């Protein structure tokens, strides 16, 4: 069975050896200190790529028959190059696939390297975990930003978190600067900008207690998620949608389903399903490995 190392970068880096879609051995972490939230964003690109290499070598644990390395990170990826990465801006323009391949070769690892968006890794990891690698899986990750992942992989840009869900000129809270984006409504950073005197959890608590302004925003938040999902259904067909990320705690499933039902009216498109799942970093590691395994066979 093929040995693949999967790596994921979010607030921290995790790497693990994956065999037959299961993690074998311990996950290798950076930084070790759980409270150090800025270690990755403060590291220059060369140092970040070197650290990825070090964690891959640790995860391989002396095995020289590792055939692939999958690296999942937040950003717009094309042909192994990070074209943009708002959450890790030092990686913009980095030729990670090429650089990491060269560094791993110095450590005796002749492995095929594959780079992908972390939301896509979550989708492929979930597909592997439920034994549905022959199905279409889509995932919304509700966190600091909004991630949209899809499996099977496509050559599309995949920045679903920047889908346009509002034509209101006042909707300018998205970190990319664009108007009307789903991330500008639902993203944690955007919510903090919108309610400068309240944390997002306080906004939803107030909404549930009947505060008119906060309740109106709660409805907008759910309409935005419904609109993004409905657009995906109309473009890509129905199927399974997973919701994950630390802000799934705000999801009112009956409200979301009601808005989605109002938006998707064609009967052949109504066989969609929604499910909330835990945002498990290990799933992203497995998903990155699945992507590397499939890239090696194409």
UniProtKB/TrEMBL annotation:
Keywords: Kinase, Transferase. It comes from the Bacteria. Pfam families: ROK. GO terms for molecular function: kinase activity. Belongs to the ROK (NagC/XylR) family. This is Putative NBD/HSP70 family sugar kinase. It comes from Granulicella arctica.
